[in-house]
């Protein structure tokens, strides 16, 4: 097995012989703390891998990626590790699109693909919307946009020194979100879509677009909450992830072809 970067792939509880790995990708400006509490809910044969791109956590001093190509290029350096055993990808918001682009690159290189992708809180990556770009707004306007998204704690937004530290990462992540448009390719694995019922910025057609990217049915599962329902409805989200894992770990998977 290829060695992996322990800062890029944080494994809180390594398994000697996992039946499946669950890779979790952060939202724009987010880190691994979103998923660390999942560990105690997972099955013993599931290895949790938290993806930590530069600019956050233990990689805070590293320059963040400013393009999807750069970010996925770093991930692809460890493609043998990612594909070593059966795996499931989970991404929220921008993380969903990063996960899809990783699949696209793995497929192009004829490498093992995931058993499933859970795309949470995101439009389909090949669909353009009229949402305006925010990454290059002046500081005050950019911070106001962050406030509207309700994903950054108020105490962080009110701390100028902390915001000075985080703004390069936030601007870089949102630049990726603003500029990335995927090449639509149908994948030979299911894509399960998670959505916040009050996340009105993501339209039904944006969600249904994920069906264009899979040979299987792409169910849309709704949760109470806005865009960051992943935090507000954490228990329900984890329960649904466990249901997906149940299907993947059982001899007969319960997904049907589209």
TrEMBL record:
InterPro entries: AB_hydrolase_fold, TEII, Thioesterase. It holds the Pfam family Thioesterase. One of its GO terms (biological process) is lipid biosynthetic process. Residues 21-240 form the Thioesterase domain. Coiled coil: none annotated. It comes from the Bacteria. Belongs to the thioesterase family. This is Surfactin synthase thioesterase subunit. It comes from Alkalimonas amylolytica.
């Amino acid at each position: 097995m290829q060695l992996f970067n322990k800062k890029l792939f944080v494994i809180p509880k390594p398994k000697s012989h996992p039946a499946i790995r669950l890779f979790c990708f952060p939202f724009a400006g987010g880190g691994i703390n979103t998923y660390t509490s999942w560990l105690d809910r997972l099955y013993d044969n599931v290895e949790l891998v938290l993806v930590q791109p530069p600019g956050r956590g233990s990689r805070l001093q590293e320059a963040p990626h400013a393009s999807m190509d750069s970010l996925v290029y770093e991930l692809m350096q460890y493609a043998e590790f990612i594909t070593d055993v059966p795996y499931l990808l989970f991404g929220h918001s921008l993380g969903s699109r990063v996960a899809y682009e990783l699949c696209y690159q793995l497929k192009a290189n004829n490498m093992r693909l995931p058993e499933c992708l859970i795309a949470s809180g995101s439009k389909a990556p090949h669909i353009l919307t009229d949402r305006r770009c925010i990454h290059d707004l002046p500081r005050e306007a950019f911070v106001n946009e962050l406030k509207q998204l309700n994903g950054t704690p108020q105490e962080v937004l009110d701390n100028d020194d902390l915001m000075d530290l985080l703004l390069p990462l936030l601007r870089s992540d949102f630049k990726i979100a603003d500029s990335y448009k995927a090449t639509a390719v149908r994948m030979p694995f299911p894509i399960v879509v998670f959505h916040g019922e009050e996340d009105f910025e993501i339209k039904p057609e944006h969600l249904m677009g994920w069906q264009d990217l899979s040979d299987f049915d792409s169910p849309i599962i709704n949760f109470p909450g806005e865009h960051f329902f992943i935090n507000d409805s954490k228990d329900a989200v984890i329960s649904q992830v466990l249901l997906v894992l149940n299907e993947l770990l059982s001899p007969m998977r319960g997904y049907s072809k589209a």
